[in-house]
Fold this protein.
Amino acid sequence: MEARTEAVLAAVDVRKRFGALAVLDGVNLALKKGEAVGIVGPNGAGKTTLLNVLSGSLAPDTGSIFFQSHDVTSKGAAERCKLGIARTHQVPRPFAGMTVFENLLVGATAGGRRRGAEAYDLCLHVLDQTALTPLANRRAEGLGLLQRKRLELARALAVDPAVLLLDEIGGGLTDAESAALVETVSGLRDRGIAVLWIEHIVHLLMQVVGRLVCMDAGRIIAEGPPEAVVSQAAVIDAYLGSQA
Ligand SMILES: Nc1ncnc2c1ncn2[C@@H]1O[C@H](COP(=O)(O)OP(=O)(O)O)[C@@H](O)[C@H]1O
Ligand SMILES: [Mg+2]
């Protein structure tokens, strides 16, 4: 199957229920190297749950996750991080008592992906890339929400990931910050990282992704070139239903 052989990361017929609610209702999604894919959809559509299942923090009820042709469904989040699957959380989760730089070092050394000077250099690079250098020695608990969101991205980048899973990192940014984020994520994609980006701010996604997926009620209801997807009636309905 193509999804298993060509994809860096693939979800195959993934299902997840919380009680009576089918939060993921047969989702198939494959990400290739150097491809950026956006996910939109109303609140409660199952976007974050899908990301949790891909990153290994949540096990699906049925279905499989493949990373570079290997079935990783039974591997947890720490193991998948070692493989190079990095994620951000919609609500940032830094190590509060550690400095920004220490938070990055945890990512860089997770699972022994890098050590010593190599890990240190990578962290310096990521600090620069995410404009966090001036905050390197600040404790995470003292950061504001936007700074914590930037740290969330930086921690994922410090893993030196093959796959980057982003969950609503673009909210509340100034135009200049948005432009910097678009440039950063586009650069990662161009370096061969597979990016999956959940975002409500569709115009940010449109600048980065080659494919847009719209979820509603645990299913993918539209998928394809971004311009085509945002103009589909089902997508507009799903949005107006939740945001009107
Ligand atoms: N741990 C959980 N236990 C029960 N219900 C949950 C849990 N996590 C998410 N849900 C429910 O699953 C649905 C999808 O949630 P989520 O994946 O966070 O949606 P999205 O990110 O698209 O807004 C929502 O109805 C949410 O309330
Ligand atoms: Mg969410």
In short: The mean pLDDT is 93.
